[in-house]
Description:
Oligomer: single chain
Bound molecules: adenine
Order of helices and strands: EHEEEHEEEHEHEHEH
Amino acid sequence: MGITGIIGAMDEEVSCLKEAMKVERIHQIAGMDFYEGDLDGKKAVVVRCGIGKVNAAVCAQVLADRFQVDRIINTGVAGSLKNVINIGDIVLSVDALQHDMDATGFGYAPGIIPRMETSVFKADEGLVDLAEKVCREENPEIQVFKGRIVSGDQFISDHDVKMDIVSRFDGYCTEMEGAAIAQAAWLNDIPFVIIRAISDKADGSAEMDYAEFEEKAIGHTVKLLLGMMKKM
Length: 232
Ligand code: ADE
């Protein structure tokens, strides 16, 4: 069974998990609080990494080095990149890439990390399938999709910027940490999955209601995460 590392970028994304957890110890490392304990009787470390790819990658590396986690789950919200994916729906990563990795001036295609074996980091199929099954049980009122998640150090809220990302990469949703965690997990040979609830359409259309949508969306991921821990 081992230890599950759970990363969320923002307090809102992990606070319910921390509340549900029997906390044994809080470790302060790299400016982050790592909550070690058990969730539904299973060993877990829950942490808020902060926003963006660097925070996310540092956090994943600490989970690898200091906690020797057996799997990493990244949870949170994201902007939809497909019309059929609505606010509140869930996207599970089949794989993840960085949409803002740009060495095109050096002859590489957009998103390709020069001199790496891969730039598209594949999620663990077992974790994806478990998340899908539990999601259908716990959140029957919403849709769940499996597809590519694209990450970058940009909050996408402009239609043209969104369409540019859509045209370059076949992403289902966009956010700011997943692919960095995926890359760190891949480098350390740790299985991972990214679970994102859609909070907006990544085009600025929902700015007014963002907070409300975000709260609802997070509710779906929390139910899903707790359900997954039960089955681990
Ligand atoms: N997280 C939630 N919505 C997002 C968006 N539109 N762009 C980047 N990250 C997000």
